[in-house]
Amino acid sequence: MNTDTPLQQLLDSEPYWIARSMQEQGSRFYRALGQALEAADAVNRRRIYETWTAECLDFYQRGLRLAEAER
Fold it and tell me: Helices (DSSP H) in the chain: which residue ranges?
């Protein structure tokens, strides 16, 4: 049973696929947020994840599908 919170799941993940899915599949706002996420250090990445947890989790799941499609 996975007891990680959505925030912890995001923090433990590789931000590359989240940022990439935001940039490829998101609106103009999410494309910019993906660029910010890609450039963020750990503190600012956490702020992004805390502020937009549900949205980042959605793009995290999209990113998993992108990664799978590239394999």
Answer: 6-12, 15-25, 28-39, 42-51, 53-70
pLDDT digits (tens, 9 = 90+) for 35-66: 999 999 999 999 999 999 999 999 999 999 99
Mention every residue, 6+ apart, whose C-beta is less than 8 A from residue 70: none
Q: Both tokens of residue 46?
A: 């956490």
pTM for this predicted structure? 0.89
Residue 4 phi, psi dihedral angles, 5° rounding:
-65, 140
Cβ proximity of 18 and 60 under 8 Å: yes
And the tokens for 33? Answer: 């947020």
CA–CA separation, 41 vs 1, rounded Å? 30
